[in-house]
């Protein structure tokens, strides 16, 4: 699928699939790479999502019809694009206790014990399909159905930044302190969004996240390193298993 | 520079520092924010010899009381919120001199909701991710990422050498937010998710702005729009002016503080030159929509861009 539509007078949307899938995600990454390389004059930025890329542009510099033609050229170019290897970013997580007050709820809901929940949640490479909701928040795919749990019926007013949660079949990390209804199973000291940094956003769509189990002492040690500005989350190249 | 334009005596409803927004980070989920009425901010800047995209002070419905701390030139553009300098009414869309010790106040909202104070030299708060715009939910930009509060002093940059008082926008270019003109839209991207009666209704009936409207979006109330299937889509991008329709059938127009993505069906997107007219509506005001082509919308955009460029040349700002 490759369908171009106008989206307002400063937007152009390219739909590349109809359902959430790794194949569609790869197409979206390929098109994003074409846009990055081509640097079409007038293009301001683009938002990759599950099934589409929406491009914002300045119609004073390039009209919809002209931009549409340029994007059409990518239809074939995309196929031969060699994507850089995806990276896996390790996110250390202290599960349970005050860091993950809903860990037992998730275990009970699924009829397993808390260790099983941790084992099923950690050491899995989750694909970052898209970013949104709050700055730096990744929409992750690939969580085991064995730990899927509905949202809280009564959302919390304040969720600590770094909280790792489950909502239905999704998992994610709160990038900001916000209200929310996710079941909280742990917390990371790593910040997904820090506007004071040269690179404020830790993650990127198309890469992977792997949660790595740490204890409370390790949490505090990493937290201290983060505050000194010396902590770097581990990154490795994603290997297809 | 260590120079300040105002000290905040009373903060007003939600007074913030805004420029044209934090673009370039939407793919990472970073909200754009920026002026709700980008045309008014840009004109204000040009009238005081600033670049169009410089930051100004956004004043909403109930304005602040500001004590002037330096002798300079400012302009107020956008909504008529009855601004007064030491009790004397101030002309909108025209630069004027202020002196240290004077007080700028606002009164009744007479026409529109968002006014912009542009100051010669621009507002000199730090650039956060290439923008000075305040986004309070993530505590970004402006002064400590929040609304202005009592006691804040607003820093300014160095004015251009050519700045002078009495420079105004030609009267026929001044927008009238009460004109009741139709809000023009481009249908899509999800208009096929609605039955044709709903599209007809959307383009013929009046919708009223509710009080649950803010910088994030304008919530409307009116004839319900029905979807062929459900109201939810796979999360997808949102642009300024995108009109979402959740399951209750009542449209929401997304504005400056919108999230970058959303999961509701999008019936249409307001054209760029009409966005100020949406932003400037007050709760209870009504609007009607009209669908136009992308080509026409882009012609109108180019016309407005040329006007702003002409003003830039006239103001000696490039």
Automatic annotation (TrEMBL), chain A:
NCBIfam families: 5-oxoprolinase subunit PxpB. It holds the Pfam family CT_C_D. The keyword Hydrolase applies. SUPFAM superfamilies: Cyclophilin-like, PH0987 N-terminal domain-like. One of its GO terms (molecular function) is ATP binding. Residues 2-203 form the Carboxyltransferase domain. This is Allophanate hydrolase. InterPro entries: CT_C_D, Cyclophilin-like_dom_sf, PxpB. The keyword Transport does not apply. It comes from Oceanobacillus chungangensis. Keywords: ATP-binding, Hydrolase, Nucleotide-binding.
UniProtKB/TrEMBL annotation, chain B:
The keyword Hydrolase applies. SMART domains: AHS2. It comes from the Bacteria. GO terms for molecular function: ATP binding; hydrolase activity. SUPFAM superfamilies: Cyclophilin-like. Residues 27-307 form the Carboxyltransferase domain. Pfam families: CT_A_B (PF02626). Keywords: ATP-binding, Hydrolase, Nucleotide-binding. Transmembrane segments: none annotated. This is KipI antagonist.
């Amino acid at each position: 699928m490759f369908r171009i539509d106008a989206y307002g007078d400063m937007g152009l949307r390219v739909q590349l699939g109809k359902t959430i899938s790794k194949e569609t995600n790869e197409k979206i990454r390929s098109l994003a790479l074409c846009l990055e390389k081509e640097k079409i004059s007038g293009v301001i930025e683009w938002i990759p999502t599950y099934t589409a890329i929406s491009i914002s542009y300045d119609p004073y510099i390039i009209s919809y019809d002209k931009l549409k033609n340029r994007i059409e050229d990518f239809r074939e170019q995309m196929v031969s694009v060699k994507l850089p290897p995806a990276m896996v970013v390790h996110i250390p997580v202290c599960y349970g206790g005050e860091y993950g007050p809903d860990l037992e709820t998730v275990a009970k809901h699924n009829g397993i014990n808390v260790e099983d929940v941790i084992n099923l949640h950690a050491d899995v490479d989750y694909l970052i399909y898209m970013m949104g909701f709050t700055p730096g928040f990744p929409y992750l795919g690939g969580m085991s159905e064995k730990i899927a749990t509905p949202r809280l019926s009564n959302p919390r007013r304040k969720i600590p930044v770094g909280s790792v949660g489950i909502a239905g079949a999704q998992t994610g990390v709160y990038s900001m302190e916000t209200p929310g209804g996710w079941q909280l199973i742990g917390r990371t000291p790593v910040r997904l969004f820090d506007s004071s940094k040269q690179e404020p956003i830790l993650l990127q769509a198309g890469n992977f996240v792997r949660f790595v189990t740490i204890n409370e002492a390790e949490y505090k040690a990493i937290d201290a390193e983060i505050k000194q500005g010396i902590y770097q989350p581990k990154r490795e190249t994603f290997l297809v298993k | 520079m260590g120079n300040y334009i105002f000290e905040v005596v009373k903060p007003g409803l939600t007074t913030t520092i805004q420029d044209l927004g934090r673009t370039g980070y939407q793919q990472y989920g970073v909200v754009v924010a920026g002026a709700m009425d980008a045309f008014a901010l840009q004109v204000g800047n040009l009238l005081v010899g600033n670049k169009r995209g410089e930051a100004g002070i956004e004043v909403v419905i109930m304005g602040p009381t500001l004590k002037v701390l330096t002798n300079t030139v400012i302009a107020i553009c956008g909504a008529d919120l009855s601004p007064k300098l030491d009790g004397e009414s101030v002309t909108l869309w025209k630069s004027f001199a202020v002196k240290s010790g004077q007080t700028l106040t606002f009164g009744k909202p007479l026409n529109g909701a968002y006014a912009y104070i542009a100051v010669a030299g621009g507002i000199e708060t730090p650039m956060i991710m290439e923008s000075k715009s305040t986004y309070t939910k993530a505590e970004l930009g402006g002064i400590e990422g929040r609304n202005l509060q009592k006691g804040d002093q607003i820093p300014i940059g160095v004015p251009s050498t050519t700045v002078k008082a009495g420079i105004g926008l030609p009267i026929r270019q001044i927008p009238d937010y009460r004109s009741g003109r139709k809000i023009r839209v481009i249908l899509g991207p999800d208009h096929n998710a609605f039955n044709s009666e709903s599209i007809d209704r959307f383009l013929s009936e009046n919708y009223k702005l509710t009080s649950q409207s803010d910088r994030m979006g304008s919530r409307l109330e009116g004839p319900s729009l029905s979807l062929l299937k459900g109201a939810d889509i796979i999360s997808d991008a949102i642009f300024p002016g995108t009109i979402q329709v959740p399951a209750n059938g009542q449209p929401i127009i997304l504005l400056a503080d919108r999230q970058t993505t959303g999961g509701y069906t999008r019936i249409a997107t307001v054209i760029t030159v009409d966005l100020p007219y949406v932003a400037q509506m007050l709760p209870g005001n009504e609007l009607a929509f009209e669908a136009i082509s992308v080509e026409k919308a882009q012609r109108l955009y180019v016309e407005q861009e040329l006007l702003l460029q002409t003003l830039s040349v006239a103001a000696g700002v490039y």
